[in-house]
# Entry
Amino acid sequence: HEKLGYVRERDLLPIARFSNTILAVGVSDQSGIKSLQELVDVARKRPGELNVMTVPGITDLVWDNFTTALGLKIQKVSFNNLGQGASEMAAGRIQVVMSAYAIMQPVIGNGAKVLAVNSRTRASALPNVPTAIEEGIPSLQLEGLVGLFGPKSMSAALRKRIGEDVAEVARLPNTAERLVASAQTPNPGGAEEFAKDIAEQEKQVAEIAARVGLKKLD
# Structure
């Protein structure tokens, strides 16, 4: 982005981590691809022939990290409606989707399958699906952090109280059930834990940006 309306470090204060959106790599059944390693092998044998839909933003950036790290040529296809991209994958008109699992969930088992999740650990909603790290593709690792921020002017007492309330609600059984049903993994944590995760992800993004040739704008 050439210009943002805020500076995170200056304007926003982490309050609490709530959950992780499940991010995943899916493929069309018609592709015949059954694992991430097979995807890599097919892409190497058929450079430029496979098509992928990614989600603009960090997901797209991590996909570029993957293809750059392994020297793969996979054509990106853009969709205004991400659900349409998932449907096109199920129909076999594109071969790959990397997105939140919720986007592709309606077509999984109906023309498409999930090869791997991008998180460090397996998702509770997809216990039998390996992580990209388990599949030997660490360049696809990405956490879908979800949490609350407040303004820098927020008092420490209010921040603590909201954080404690969020953590309490996140740990309720019915909350966990609803999160899993909406393709998220419960991951409650306090302000310090959330801030640490954000810092780690910002470092990861900076490293990827440098690797794929993006320059930070003033």
Remarks:
- The chain has a mean pLDDT of 93.
- The two ends are 10 Å apart (CA to CA).
